[in-house]
């Protein structure tokens, strides 16, 4: 009887140990709701840029976020919005995205996003301009890392974007 009890206890211990090891090594998959919430953060940012207005967008970013753009280190999002993005948007009459696609992978409290898109910028005419400036068209890509904060909201921790002139279609 003692041997059976000892064997059953050992078997239970091995099963528990194996289950714990498997849980620790298995990636924590995100839910469809988390994926949708992450995509909504990206969409809200995209919509703000299209409206040429960054008001309130700082809430989409972690306070210590990092922004990297086309080979440059822009600092936190607040710095980027105040010293780069905001002043640029004031020079535009329109900013539109097209061919937009987003892929999101959620892993526990972190999410990894890749966005591809084409954007078109229409510049404002100055008093000296006799005709409209040609639109700026670029093919862009952005990768972002987001984290779910203590309040359960997804925020961008790091984002890196780059763009180039679209290649001619063959």
UniProtKB/TrEMBL annotation:
<protein>
    <submittedName>
        <fullName>DUF4440 domain-containing protein</fullName>
    </submittedName>
</protein>
<feature type="signal peptide">
    <location>
        <begin position="1"/>
        <end position="23"/>
    </location>
</feature>
<dbReference type="InterPro" id="IPR032710">
    <property type="entry name" value="NTF2-like_dom_sf"/>
</dbReference>
<dbReference type="Pfam" id="PF14534">
    <property type="entry name" value="DUF4440"/>
</dbReference>
<dbReference type="InterPro" id="IPR027843">
    <property type="entry name" value="DUF4440"/>
</dbReference>
<keyword id="KW-0732">Signal</keyword>
<feature type="domain" description="DUF4440">
    <location>
        <begin position="42"/>
        <end position="156"/>
    </location>
</feature>
